[in-house]
Write a structure and sequence with these properties.
alpha/beta, Aminopeptidase, Rossmann fold, five-stranded parallel sheet, 11 helices, 15 strands, elongated
Length: 357
């Protein structure tokens, strides 16, 4: 459901002068670009020779994520932003090139839970022994090698330094991209849950993080299922959360302090807040229907309250005038209806409590 494109790095490994790798990389990009557009994927060619990576020269172990050198930090940022990889590799002496092994060894968590496909080339084995060697390494880094591969036998498929057009070869390359994109989507929850800096949630395996405009599809679905009950309780469909477009949702996600509770790629609940004058306004508190009654709404409410600056005078929220369960929850957390509780003609009531008890 994410609107984020699948970013695929195409790693061209050979750095030998006159190597065939760049030509195969160009053929691969040209061949896959139309299909990438259909799949919502972005292909980024990365010749390893252009990275200027010396043999691993970091003092700290790559698993620490502590990098002293600028070339490592650049490589880390490039790999970390990727969702998957296609490796264009020759076979050297029954193995992968040292350039690929070195590039892999530089990093740690940046590789984890991302698919990797291989386009190999060579003579006797069409580079397949290089792929088998590489698979032993990439699985240790928690990369996920694809079942589909392309093995190019130079004598059969290359003429004057270029790939001969072949429907079978083109189909095999497209098959690698198709599988990579599917696996990248499937592994996205694993990638996100493994990122540093996430706060643990109240359920085993859950975590909370700031929502961004890229989360608009998930937020829109959650709003649709949560605010139906509000519409029924208050006998109105005039509830913004039920009608917002993806673009409108993304717009407010860019400006509000919005937090989401996640588990296994599923958005379980959310809440948003922002400053209005000297008050901290909390809203859009919702939990998926099948997990209600487990204290998640209360936990999210307290999370939003904890984000308020000490200088704020009150915490303010609104709910439907007939949303009895919501009002009971808020009152149990110390909120009280204000004398001017009715806010215009929208049928909501305003509740507030002191920001600092």
């Amino acid at each position: 459901m994410s609107t984020k494109k699948v970013r695929v790095l195409v790693l061209v490994c050979s750095t030998r002068p006159g190597a065939l790798g760049p030509a195969i990389g160009t053929w691969l990009i040209d061949t896959l670009t139309p299909r990438a557009g259909e799949l919502g994927a972005e292909l980024v060619p990365v010749p390893l020779g252009d990275l200027d990576l010396p043999f691993l020269d970091e003092e700290e172990h790559p698993s620490s994520g502590v990098y002293a050198h600028e070339h490592t930090r650049r490589w880390s940022a490039l790999v970390d932003a990727a969702d998957g990889f296609i490796v264009v590799t020759p076979e050297y002496n029954y193995g992968m090139p040292a350039t690929l092994k070195n590039a892999l060894d530089y990093l740690g968590h940046e590789w984890a839970w991302k698919p990797i496909g291989f386009i190999s080339y060579g003579n006797t084995s069409a580079g397949t022994r290089s792929v088998q060697h590489a698979k032993q390494v990439v699985t240790t880094l928690r990369l996920v090698p694809l079942g589909r591969t392309v093995a190019i036998r130079i004598s059969d498929s290359v003429e004057d330094g270029q790939i001969r057009p072949k429907a079978a070869l083109t189909g095999a390359a497209v098959g690698v991209l198709d599988e990579l994109v599917r696996v990248a989507h499937a592994l996205r929850p694993m990638r996100e849950a493994g990122r540093p800096g996430l706060s643990p949630g109240p359920l085993p395996g859950s975590y909370v993080r700031r929502l961004t405009p890229e989360d608009a599809p998930e937020v829109t679905v959650l709003q649709r299922c949560c605010w139906v009950d509000e519409a029924l309780a208050n006998d109105t469909l005039a509830i913004p959360a039920l009608h917002e477009s993806l673009e409108q949702t993304a717009e407010w996600l860019a400006t509000w302090h919005a937090m989401g509770l996640w588990r296994d790629g599923r958005l379980l609940g959310m809440v948003r807040a922002r400053q209005v004058d000297t008050d901290w306004h909390v809203g859009r508190l919702g939990v998926v229907p099948d997990l209600r009654g487990q204290g998640l709404g209360r936990w999210l409410l307290r999370t939003a309250e904890a984000a308020a600056e000490p200088s704020y005078r009150r915490i303010v929220l609104h709910t439907g005038a007939h949303s009895r369960q919501n009002i009971a929850l808020y009152q149990s957390e110390g909120y009280r209806s204000e004398p001017e509780a009715r806010t215009g003609d929208d049928g909501t009531v305003r509740l507030a409590k002191d920001a600092t008890p």
